[in-house]
């Protein structure tokens, strides 16, 4: 993984009110929805760990991300960025009706996928997001996942890793029950090394254990055994 | 670009880790701590193994271990907690998978092992002694409970064995381990916990905040121990490593520093 020397272009706010930063790449990249990054500001004093960033908007020139907790970045700050990490979301090519779901977090990490779906003219619905007032008018807001039964042909969800059971309860799915349509889950959590050695991001799956930093952080829900 | 860790100008006296039939001379002062560079070559695009005294592998247990259900990383002031459950394929599968890769590394390989008892340690050592590519073994302890019994086993081993005690065990625990026969000692991460959003997360503690502990312990033990002491904890710069060597460490393990700046110098 190469280091990319990036610059904070601007500081703003996400739809749910959290501070965010727009980061410019030094040269154009094309990150995919669901890919993540790790970053370390060059001004960091005695750092211990890189920040794990889940982009909330993507462009070739850079990406927007929530500011890591406790960090105060300023426009012009130089940031060393690693990534993109992971393959991103993989919605089935024929899918047309996407349900995007979050549990215990804002919709922010799914926004790049939402925008990708809108660009493709797909039918989009969101459930569980606290910031529904700021969604585009062409995105339907559902009160519960049950409303999407029989309609959604692809579900993308984002949940803190330790709350995966809450996601299953939300969808009323037992661990062994196969969902009616493909469900991909982004496990949102801090990464350790980011390059596959520390195993802090390892998750058990039906195919053995996998690493969020190498194989994820997006997994089909039905293969997860956590 | 792999990261270079060479301490070019510092005077370093290579320690020799001895055992029954083998010895290992650490020709470079910096080693990678267990869990921070993988089992063999996983990190070779990021870390320059040419300038490391040894690769200490990720922890290996006799039987396979799965990831902990609540594995993860949590930031805390001055560092982070890490909990993985020490997932690995088990000793036999690990040897099969990584043996050839170990031969290809430019530095010696020290196998870090997990043993629940002195008997289990003995079994693992017997297997590893048959692997010429394994230069030494490090065994990690969470508490002092088994240290002295395992030190006696380690003293009889054919391979050099390093006993790793948590940094917060205190100097006396290290001295007792040495008196019980430990051929070499290293410092391991202490355990800690963090509460956030009503949930408690426990794990091993790493980060710059540990350097004062490591430095004090090395100063206390550096000249008192008759066996090599490999210091670790909080090393984030060349100056940190040099200081530990100056006050008596035989070598220094790098942990979080290995991840931070893949394209920079320590």
What does this structure look like?
The complex is a heterodimer of chains A (226) and B (266). Chain A has 226 residues and is mainly β. Chain A contains two helices and 15 strands. Chain A has helices spanning 111-119, 164-170, and strands at 3-13, 19-24, 36-41, 51-53, 55-59, 62-66, 78-85, 97-102, 123-127, 139-142, 154-160, 183-188, 202-205, 208-211, 218-220. Chain A has a seven-stranded antiparallel β-sheet with strand order 4-3-7-1-2-6-5. Chain A has a six-stranded mixed β-sheet with strand order 10-9-8-11-12-15, covered by helices on one side. In chain A, β11 (154-160), α2 (164-170) and β12 (183-188) form a beta-alpha-beta unit. Chain A starts with a strand and ends in a 6-residue tail after the last strand. The model of chain A has no long low-confidence stretch (mean pLDDT 92). Chain B starts with 15 loop residues before the first strand and ends in a 6-residue tail after the last helix. The longest helix of chain B is centred in the middle third of the chain and has 14 residues, at 91-104. In chain B, α2 runs parallel beside α3. An eight-stranded parallel β-barrel of chain B has the order 3-4-8-9-10-11-14-15, surrounded by five helices. Chain B has a four-stranded antiparallel β-sheet with strand order 6-7-13-12, with no helix packed on it. A two-stranded antiparallel sheet of chain B has the order 1-2. Chain B has seven helices and 15 strands. The model of chain B has no long low-confidence stretch (mean pLDDT 91). Chain B is of the alpha/beta class and 266 residues long. Classes of the chains: A mainly beta (226), B alpha/beta (266).
Q: Profile the largest sheet of chain A.
A: 7 strands, antiparallel
Please state the average pLDDT score of chain A.
92
User: Helicity level of chain A, as a percent range?
Assistant: under 10%
Helical segment count of chain B? 7
User: Which structural class fits the helix and strand makeup of chain A?
Assistant: mainly beta
Q: What percentage of amino acids of chain A are in beta strands?
A: 35-45%
SSE class of chain B: alpha/beta
